[in-house]
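Q: Sequence in, structure out?
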Amino acid sequence: MKCTDEFSAWIDGLDRSLRIRIDQRIQRLADGNPDLHRRFDNLLEIKWKTGTMGSFRLYCAEVDGVILLLGGHKDSQSKDIKMAIALLEGVKNGKTRIKEYE
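A: Exactly. Output:
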């Protein structure tokens, strides 16, 4: 699986316990199970709640495999969707750098 620098920066800014939960969700996605999600504008928005932390979103797309574009919170959803769409366009035209997700 690959990711953008923006995704890496987002996930690196989270606390360890939350990153573990997100990684578990990403593993289920890699296994073909996106759980609660919606598709639009060539994006996949994966949604989940983390109790007191609220609702998180993960934006990804399928371009030669799954690319993790961006992560965010319900509160920033509309801004995050616009950014994820722009990142996807950048991936398609070679202007957005992607790397292996570890």
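The first strand starts at residue 2 and ends at 4.
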